[in-house]
Amino acid sequence: MTRILDVRGLSKGFEMHHLGAQMQAFSDISLTLDAGEFLLLKGRNGAGKSTLLRTLYRSYLAQSGQILFHSSHGVIDLARAADVDVTFLRRTEIGFVTQFLTARPRVSAEALVAEPLRLAGHGAADALEQARHWLAAFGVKQALWAAYPTTFSGGEQQKVNLARALILPQRLLMLDEPTASLDASARAALIDRLADLKAQGTAMIGVFHHPGDVAQLIDREIDLTPDAPQMEDRTDVVV
Amino acid sequence: MTVQQMDAPRLITTRPLLIAQGVSKSYGSVKALQDVSATVYPGEVLGIVGESGSGKSTFLRSLNLEETPDSGSYTLDLPDVQGNLFDLDRFARRMLCATKIGIVYQNPHLGLLMKHSSSGNVAERLLVAGERRFAVLREKAREALDASEFPLSRMDAPPVELSGGMQQRVQLAKAIALEPALLLLDEPTTGLDVSVQALVLDTLKRLQQERKITMVIVSHDLGVIRTLADRVMVMKGGRVVEAGLADQVFQDPQHAYTQQLVHAKL
After folding, report:
1. Nearest CA to CA, how far is B147 from chain A (Å)?
2. In chain A, what residues touch B199 (CB-CB under 8 Å)?
3. B13 touches chain A (CB under 8 A)
4. Which residue among B11, B252, B263 sits closest to A60, beta carbon to beta carbon?
5. Lowest-confidence segment of A226-235, B76-85, B137-146 by average pLDDT
6. Which of A61, A92, A111, A226 sees the fewest Cβ atoms within 10 Å?
7. B15 has a chain A CB within 8 A of its CB
8. Are B250 and B222 in contact (CB under 8 A)?
């Protein structure tokens, strides 16, 4: 198996200056992730699941520990990597799917979905064609493709968000409750796309409010609840 | 603060376009800039935020060589551009700024001749760079205005007859007419109403994506910075208090002042 991620002794806390207090989110987390593997993060509310994902993505700064990402250019510790490298890797190898769309004023749904391909160097016509394909796959009505998603309902925005986040296959994909607020058909389309990406070798680590939604994709689980076993191999899932 | 993250492990060895190091400037007893350093890579957008008087605009004017700091260095990694740019004489500064650096000011009066035609304002930039053929001047001005989403039917109207949003587009067209290596933006949307702000932001975002223009943008509007910037530098009292990836600075601010700034956002 090709190793993608090797996290060693990772800790994160938040210093809240106005309270003069520090809040520890998680401590001493170690995990590994291989190409094509799907790792589920479990734990009670506040156990630090989303915080861990954001720390891996570098939206949060790690306090200590290493996040060794095996990129196509070599191994780099994302906890300490230069910002410019993190920006580059986010554009080319590391994806993050949340349940919220960051819509921009005056940018159509199809342009927003095509953007990651444009940034990766695809031609305008090809990017637009693929964007329309994925908007259709996630069930966004054709009449809305050229409209501005700022005015869409939460569910429609989420479909646009998924089309955008998953249009470009990545080496590593982080999933932060992407099934929340999705209808059944969009959820099925999401699971199809994730299975497809997984088969292509994308390594995935995710938090799901209803893990049953993605049961067939899960290879391993980690429970972040303090005092829970650090890692366990699932035996109830046939891989 | 030292040059940003020079000691961080590197994966892709792109060279920075811009390196400013240890820039300090005082006006009498007021220390406007204290040991400010910044690094910007090709195609990157650096956002600078901070309250009034934090030094952000002074720093931007220094990058446009309008200010001569008391100490510090500033280099651009471009062909035929060498050494500390703060050491250049007035003529060399003017040529460099006319050909390699574009700027958009908050106040259009600083960047435009208000009673000359809009196309003439853009062409003036090309004239300074040595272009003398009328047809070429006109065509290049038209292209730059079009790229800035300025309505071409009004290209001969003087800025004084235009709305604030239109004036900003003329400034932008002038700034990008020579395809500058570096585009500096000083509060480009401040004072514009919300719908016009969105138009200007959208144009900037498109230029950034399609032309890969390296930008440094100063704004007290965190929304503007969040929309445009890859990285953010937070200034207070003439110093850089924090710098990092835009989403990291906004989601996980480290410095007490940045936390206060982010939490104060509506």
Report:
1. 16
2. 106
3. no
4. B252
5. A226-235
6. A226
7. no
8. yes
Structure token digits, residue B147: 């790229």
Residue A220 contacts residue A37 (beta carbons within 8 Å):
yes
Burial class (CB in 10 A: 0-12, 13-18, 19+), A192: exposed
Complex confidence, ipTM: 0.87
Tell me the two tokens of residue A154. Answer: 């939460």
Structure tokens at A94: 């590391």
What are the per-10-residue average pLDDT scores of chain A (239 residues)?
A: 95 91 92 97 90 97 97 94 93 90 86 91 93 96 94 90 94 93 90 96 94 93 76 41
- Of B123, B149, B179, which residue sits at a domain end? B179
- Residues B192, B175, single domain; the answer is no
Assigned domain for B1 exists: no
Please check whether residue B193 touches A, CB under 8 A: no
Task: Say whether residue A74 is in contact with chain B using an 8 A CB cutoff.
Answer: yes
Q: Across the interface, do A83 and B231 touch by the CB < 8 Å criterion?
A: yes
CATH number reported for the structural domain that contains residue B252 in this entry: 3.40.50.300
Residue showing tokens 């006319």: B98
Cβ contacts of residue B175 below 8 Å, gap of 6+?
B102, B103, B104, B111, B125, B183
Question: Is the Cβ of B47 closer than 8 Å to some Cβ of chain A?
Answer: no
Closest listed residue to residue B235, CA positions, set B209, B261, B213, B215: B261
Mutate to test the interface with B, among A73, A77, A84 (most CBs of B within 10 A): A84
Overall domain count for chain B: 2
